[in-house]
Each structure stands twice: as structure tokens, then as C-alpha cells.
């Protein structure tokens, strides 16, 4: 379903909804009081200028990629917080999230996140978390597709493990009914209003009664 992606490109109303979505997402990702917008200002002053051109070139190749990256951030954040766990490949000690039901054959853009991380490592080796890279990439994607800009709070720590079961159970499904969607979002401190805004209204049949 490309509803959100295509509405990002065409409808300013939907853009506004996506804007709201991102702002809520941002607050979800930064509920920890230790996060701050200047977290890397001394340790990686060129962080933002390392990230943006890589996002730009990916979007130049395919505009949809910006939407795909935003979705990666959402799917990362819903499983044990915004900790980069979605980015981990399966290992001998765990089966990760990439091939969980909500992600298999649909989560995309991992190679773009890898390229961004490489650029960041070149600028500031061993400093910036993958979770923060994803959070910045989701913001830059939104801006580059014509959405709003916001300051990303930073300082997330990366997960060292991941759980396919947790991803299966935590990311809402397209077959979820409205009550299930509401409670899934409530569990993360997100209101019904946040749910509607974050989901862009158009993307799920069970939300259409709010339109
Ligand atoms: C409320 C529960 C949600 C459900 C059940 C849901 C479900 C889905 C499904 C089934 C797809 C299509 C995947 C495919 O065909 O490969 C999709 C696409 C997408 N979703 Fe959601 N979604 C939800 C909320 C959100 C939220 C909160 C965001 C971001 C703020 C988001 C962003 C996207 C984007 C950008 C796409 C298109 C991705 C691409 O083209 O690569 N979704 N969603
Ligand atoms: C996650 O869901 C998929 C698809 O339904 C299933 O094949 C897989 O076994 C589930 N993983 C776990 C750990 O429950």
C-alpha cells in the first residue's frame, strides 16, 4: 500500500498530516529526558552534513525511498523503542526483526541507512548510534519530500539484540481493528489522535471513520 507515499507527493493536506505524524513520532522517539538536539555538537559537529546528501541522493534516484525510510523509523520505534534493533541482521543467538511479519518483503531502504552510517563513520568514527542515524534520516527524508523540518533530539543507544517475536507482536497489522490499533498506540503513550495523525488517515480502512 503506497497511500502515504503517494499522498506525500501530491496532496498538501496529506502533507500536513504527515507533518503532524512526524512531530508525534519525534516525541515518541525522544521521551527520554536525556536526549538533546546538541548531543553530538562537540563529538560530531558535521553529523547533519554527513547524513543529508546521502538521503538526498537516494531520494533523487527514487522519491519513494524517503517514505520507506520514514516507515523504517516507525517500525524500529514500535519494538522496544527507537533503538536501531530493526537494522540488525539475524545472528546465531537471535532471529531479528527484518524478517518479522510486518517487515518481510516490505521494509526497505536498509542499504540507504547503511550508506548513511558509512558516511557518518567517515566523519566521526565510533560516535553516532545507528538509532540516531535512522531518526535523522527519517527527518531529512520528510523535509526533502516537501514536509516540515524539526530538530531531532539525539542520544539514543543502540540495541545489541533484536526479537522477531517482539516485532511480530508490537508492530500493528493492517488487519488490526480500531480498538487494537488504539491500544497498541496507547501502550506507547500515543493517543487516538496521535494514531490518526501518524497513520496519515488514508492508509488504513479502520481509520476512515475519523476522516
Ligand atoms: C497504524 C498502524 C499501521 C499499519 C497497520 C500500517 C500498515 C502498513 C502496510 C501494510 C503498508 C504496506 C507495506 C507493503 O505493501 O509493503 C504500509 C506502508 C507504509 N507505512 Fe504504514 N502502517 C501503520 C502506520 C504507519 C505509521 C505510523 C507510519 C509513519 C509515520 C507509516 C508509514 C508507512 C509508509 C511511509 C509506507 C509506505 C512504505 C514504502 O513505500 O516503502 N505507517 N503500512
Ligand atoms: C513471526 O511471524 C511470522 C509470520 O507469521 C512467522 O512465520 C514467525 O514464526 C513469527 N516469529 C516468531 C518468533 O514468532
From TrEMBL:
Ca(2+) binds at residues 76, 79, 81, 83, 85, 97. Pfam families: peroxidase. GO terms for molecular function: heme binding; lactoperoxidase activity; metal ion binding. The keyword Repressor does not apply. One of its GO terms (biological process) is response to oxidative stress. The active site is at 75 (proton acceptor). Its EC number is 1.11.1.7. The record marks 71 as: Transition state stabilizer. Removal of H(2)O(2), oxidation of toxic reductants, biosynthesis and degradation of lignin, suberization, auxin catabolism, response to environmental stresses such as wounding, pathogen attack and oxidative stress. These functions might be dependent on each isozyme/isoform in each plant tissue. This is peroxidase.
Amino acid at each position: 500500500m503506497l497511500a502515504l507515499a503517494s499522498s506525500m507527493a501530491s496532496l498538501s493536506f496529506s502533507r500536513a498530516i504527515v507533518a503532524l505524524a512526524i512531530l508525534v513520532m519525534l516525541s515518541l522517539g525522544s521521551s527520554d529526558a536525556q536526549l538533546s538536539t546538541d548531543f553530538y555538537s562537540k563529538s560530531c559537529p558535521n553529523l547533519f552534513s554527513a547524513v543529508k546528501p546521502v538521503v538526498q541522493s537516494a531520494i533523487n534516484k527514487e522519491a519513494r525511498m524517503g517514505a520507506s525510510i520514514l516507515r523504517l523509523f516507525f517500525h524500529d520505534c514500535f519494538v522496544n523503542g527507537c533503538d536501531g534493533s530493526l537494522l540488525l541482521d539475524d545472528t546465531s543467538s537471535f532471529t531479528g526483526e527484518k524478517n518479522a511479519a510486518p517487515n518481510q518483503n516490505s521494509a526497505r531502504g536498509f542499504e540507504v541507512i547503511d550508506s548513511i552510517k558509512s558516511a557518518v563513520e567517515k566523519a566521526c568514527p565510533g560516535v553516532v548510534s545507528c538509532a540516531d542515524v535512522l531518526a535523522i534520516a527519517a527527518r531529512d527524508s520528510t523535509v526533502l519530500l516537501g514536509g516540515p523540518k524539526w530538530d531531532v533530539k539525539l542520544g539514543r543507544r543502540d540495541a545489541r539484540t533484536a526479537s522477531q517475536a517482539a516485532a511480530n507482536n508490537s508492530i500493528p497489522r493492517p488487519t488490526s481493528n480500531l480498538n487494537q490499533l488504539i491500544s497498541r498506540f496507547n501502550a506507547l503513550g500515543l493517543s487516538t489522535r496521535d494514531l490518526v495523525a501518524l497513520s496519515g488517515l488514508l492508509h488504513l480502512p479502520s481509520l476512515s471513520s475519523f476522516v
